[in-house]
Write a structure and sequence with these properties.
This protein is α/β, with parallel strands linked by helices and 185 residues long. It has helices spanning 2-12, 48-52, 68-88, 119-128, 163-173, and strands spanning 26-31, 35-42, 102-108, 131-138, 142-148, 151-158, 177-180. The strands form three sheets. The chain has a three-stranded parallel sheet. Strands 1-2 form a two-stranded antiparallel sheet. β3, α4 and β4 form a beta-alpha-beta unit.
């Protein structure tokens, strides 16, 4: 829910330090075991909130996983195709419309453990298409539920975040990596 709120503040602004992205094409790709386009690239930002509400944590075992490579590849393909399509539309303009900057903001709370594409291969593809990836690792320590004779307890299992790969993805594409341990960060 915090990530959803921050996404909305990023797109619409928050009246303080975030101005919003009113003139930018914005889309949304969600991923767990599989990557899916939740909202295609659009300037109609009012629809983004409704699409965002359809995004939920994986609840069934067959949905669980983290497919970072497939998510990057899908988002990059969407940006690349949009750039090519818009460049072909002239409509009486002196020069075709051009997307000046292509950026993926990758938010994840895990490490790549499923999917067809390796995250670094997908990052290389994005870099080849001139797409920068800013990666944000969300969350702190991972926990697991353990059933004991005294009841069910949550036990820390260490961090599930692969910061080394997220840093490499960002660096490969000219982006940055940051870790967000709490709602404020």
């Amino acid at each position: 829910e915090v990530v959803k709120r921050v996404f909305q503040e990023f797109v619409f602004g928050n009246g303080r330090e975030l101005k919003g992205r009113g003139d930018d094409l914005v889309g949304l790709v969600a991923f767990a075991r599989y990557a899916d386009t939740v909202c295609p690239l659009t300037l109609a930002h009012g629809a983004l909130g409704q699409f965002l509400e359809t995004v939920h944590l994986a609840e069934r075992r067959e949905e669980d996983g983290t497919s970072i490579g497939d998510a990057i590849a899908l988002a990059a393909a969407r940006l690349h195709t949009a750039g090519e399509t818009l460049a072909k539309q002239v409509d009486g303009q002196e020069k075709p419309y051009e997307i000046k900057s292509k950026v993926i903001i990758l938010l994840t709370d895990g490490q790549h453990n499923f999917g067809q594409r390796d995250p670094m291969q997908a990052a290389s593809m994005a870099a080849d298409w001139g797409i920068r990836i800013h990666a944000i690792g969300v969350g702190g320590e991972a926990v697991t539920a353990v059933q004991t004779p005294l009841g069910r307890f949550m036990m820390p299992t260490g961090s599930d975040l692969d910061e080394r790969t997220l840093t490499a993805i960002a660096e490969r594409t000219g982006g940055i990596y940051r870790k967000a341990d709490d709602a404020e960060s």
